[in-house]
């Protein structure tokens, strides 16, 4: 996978920004980073776009910056000179799309129909924008057209919000969603950076969907595990299911280990909607995972909390 596409996938939500005052670009970018979304598509719908991009690239280097609403070769050149990592257009213009590709820049043209998607694929693209997403049938349409285009993935934008975000991201052919609900114009104009940070953090939490899945309890051996299971059953009537290394009780909410595992006392399993994005999210914040524990289903943190190991679990 292209490195930039991989980063966009890991971030999961790309705020789409229309900014009128370049002086507000850096504090806006920093609010997004603090909230957990170090990415932005800065649209060329305003005269300040180029300078805003230039300042974010220079002063917030952890930010993945792209240019949106690129309609002309001149805009593409300005965006590339300002330091963007990707370019997005609202529609599919073969001439502009080819021009950007030939510049060696990642291009995600807007598409709304299978015909436009096929034209983009004929140029070697395997990721395109789907715009305007909700007005063009939403995720249901993408699922309907996905089968013939096995190598194609989408970044839906337009009508995506906190309520329908997971309808889109739960479809594995979607690399990320573009959205504006955390960067509304009035919030930017009024410099409400704390509110933007809070909305951004809420969006990330919705995407990752953390929740406690089960508590793991360490015992010294299989005999001690059996005793613990019988006590839970005697007290609460929990049903149990025995596996090779543990017993699960109460619809898998409690796991009794047959021998000590990670954690002084045991472990807590925290479920997430998307394990790869959750891992990338925590690593970007300096958290580390135990070597050799990352699988397609789970990943253990190096740190423990109150004697409990913590691991992420794919829902």
How would you describe this protein?
The chain is an alpha/beta fold and 315 residues long. It folds into 2 domains: 205 residues, Alpha-Beta Barrel (TIM Barrel), CATH 3.20.20; 104 residues, 2,3-Dihydroxybiphenyl 1,2-Dioxygenase, domain 1. The protein has 12 helices and 16 strands. The strands form 3 sheets. Strands 11-12-13-10-14-16-15 form a 7-stranded mixed sheet. A 6-stranded parallel sheet has the order 5-4-3-2-1-9, sandwiched between helices. Strands 6-7-8 form a 3-stranded parallel sheet, with helices on one face. Helix 2 runs parallel beside helix 10. The radius of gyration is 23 Å and the shape is elongated. The model has no long low-confidence stretch (mean pLDDT 97).
Write a concise synopsis of the structure shown.
The protein is an alpha/beta fold. The protein contains 12 helices and 16 strands.
Keywords:
TIM Barrel; alpha/beta; 12 helices; single chain; 2 domains; 2,3-Dihydroxybiphenyl 1,2-Dioxygenase, domain 1; seven-stranded mixed sheet
Layout of helices and strands, plus pairs?
Blueprint: H1 3-11, E1 13-17, H2 25-35, E2 39-43, H3 49-59, E3 64-68, H4 73-82, E4 86-88, H5 94-102, E5 106-108, E6 110-111, H6 114-122, E7 127-130, H7 138-146, E8 153-156, H8 165-169, E9 177-179, H9 185-189, H10 193-208, E10 211-217, H11 222-236, E11 240-242, E12 246-249, E13 254-257, E14 266-272, H12 275-284, E15 298-305, E16 308-314
Parallel strand pairs: 1-2, 1-9, 2-3, 3-4, 4-5, 6-7, 7-8, 10-13, 14-16
Antiparallel strand pairs: 10-14, 11-12, 12-13, 15-16
Helix pairs in contact: 2-10, 3-4
